[in-house]
Amino acid sequence: MEVFYKSTRGDGTLVTSSQAILKGLADDGGLFVPDHIPQLEIPLEHFADMDYRQTAYEVMRLMLTDYTDDELHACIDHAYDAKFDCEEIAPVKKVGGVHFMELFHGSTIAFKDMALSILPHLLTTAARKNEITDDIVILTATSGDTGKAALAGFADVPHTRIIVFYPKGGVSKIQELQMVTQKGENTFVVGVKGNFDDAQTGVKMMFNDSNLKQALNDNGLRFSSANSINIGRLVPQIAYYVWAYSRLVKDRTIKAGDPINFVVPTGNFGNILAGYYAKRMGIPVNKMICASNDNKVLYDFFRTGTYDRNRDFILTSSPSMDILISSNLERLIYLITGEKEVDCKAFMKELSEKGSYTITESEKELLADFYGEYASEEENAQGIKETFEQYGYVTDTHTGVANCVYRKYLKETGDQTPTVIVSTASPYKFARSVMSAIKGEQTADDFVLIGQLETLSGTPIPNAIKEIMDAKILHDTVCETGAMESVVRKYLGLEG
């Protein structure tokens, strides 16, 4: 049965998956969601015998139904290839009594590679399918990792350009260097004098600006997004939850049909939402454990039913989670309102105008699949240190938050369900924070600390780090949040 997509805020108009991927954001400002979530069509035990590419195909063919088998296989084979440093693509490792799914073995050493390695292929295929001749302009905001992964994925892809905004001073040194040294004639990186929410709001405003849209049309251009608001980002992420489940079946931790938990370090809510979609597709998930840092807007939401971004924005050692407006939560809100676009739209209007909204008690009951908790900076650092000292395993700061939250969950519930912690980045990407957690405050240069981390962890420095050690800065544009549109217009030659 074919899956179509519609806006969370719209009138029910349906588009194909390729059309939704091309647009990125619906014309009414809503996010595209499937008109139904299909069920996995093969027995769970069969996934244990598949490799990652086969697993991805079995998931994506159900969600992206207007892509042919040949098109999907081509996209998958181009995405999950030698750019990943291990054959498994996303190895699942047991550490103590919990499993870590490592999603950082791609070319930019963060989980965003899992989806952004394939999105350019899905997007260019979609353009051909829909006879689009315009050049596609990828416009995106990043809290640290999406930017580099998107830049790497789209660099020098014909008939595309990519513009990435990031919060100046709000990402790690390694994250920033990865972006500002990015090669590619079609790449453009801009630091914003503000936080991630400011950058993301500016991007959304440009997507909804009719005058800017007309200027793009007049010049043979069209916007699309590489953020997790694009359904072409979300669907590939579902695959690694199915994969993780199959690995626990394969190593006989569980039998097919047994439930597991997932713990996900969460900022924009796309990653954990993909896990929830996997549950809706048939993966037996007991709890989706949503792990927040000190910017605990999601923790408060799951505990109280009120989403409130009216609070101080805190810069932490897990910057990809430093977010107060979790855009993908809108897709979950759409589901718990009974897929009522008018109700979802009303909540999003309240968020925009007042900075908060409160769901009903009956809607809150539909969040029972989720558990929210957070870890402070101090708890995170202590957890990273203890995990290394007990098991010799080094996590990055985002995975550290998830690990801390899992310990709290265990203490509160005593739930012994086998659990997978979603490990979203290499510790090398946050070497200063990781080394400070394990060895105390560090004053050495970041690259010196990277060398020390290699010795400490016993794992080699990834190529993604080696490549930026002496790389030339190619992008040095910085702007105020109010100047984002003018910067875009200038870069695209749309001035006036």
Protein traits:
single chain; 496 residues; alpha/beta; Rossmann fold; six-stranded mixed β-sheet; five-stranded parallel β-sheet; 22 helices; 44% helix
Strand order across the largest sheet:
3-4-14-9-10-13
Which structural category do the helix and sheet elements fall into? alpha/beta
What would CATH call the architecture of one domain? 3-Layer(aba) Sandwich
Mean of pLDDT: 96
Number of helices: 22
State the shape.
globular
Care to count the β-strands?
15
- Report the helical percentage: 40-55%
- CATH topology descriptor of one domain: Rossmann fold
Biggest sheet statistics: 6 strands, mixed
Walkthrough of the structure:
- The protein has 496 residues and is α/β, with parallel strands linked by helices.
- It has a domain at 92-107 and 232-466: Rossmann fold.
- 44% of the residues lie in helices and 15% in strands.
- It has 22 helices and 15 strands.
- It has helices at 17-23, 44-47, 52-63, 69-79, 113-116, 119-129, 146-154, 173-180, 196-207, 210-218, 231-250, 270-281, 297-304, 329-336, 341-354, 361-365, 377-391, 397-413, 431-439, 446-457, 463-466, 484-492; strands at 5-7, 32-34, 92-95, 98-102, 135-141, 160-167, 187-193, 221-224, 260-265, 285-292, 306-308, 356-358, 370-374, 419-423, 477-480.
- The strands form four sheets. It has a six-stranded mixed β-sheet with strand order 3-4-14-9-10-13, sandwiched between helices. It has a five-stranded parallel β-sheet with strand order 8-5-6-7-15, with helices on both faces.
- β9, α12 (270-281) and β10 form a beta-alpha-beta unit.
- The chain is globular.
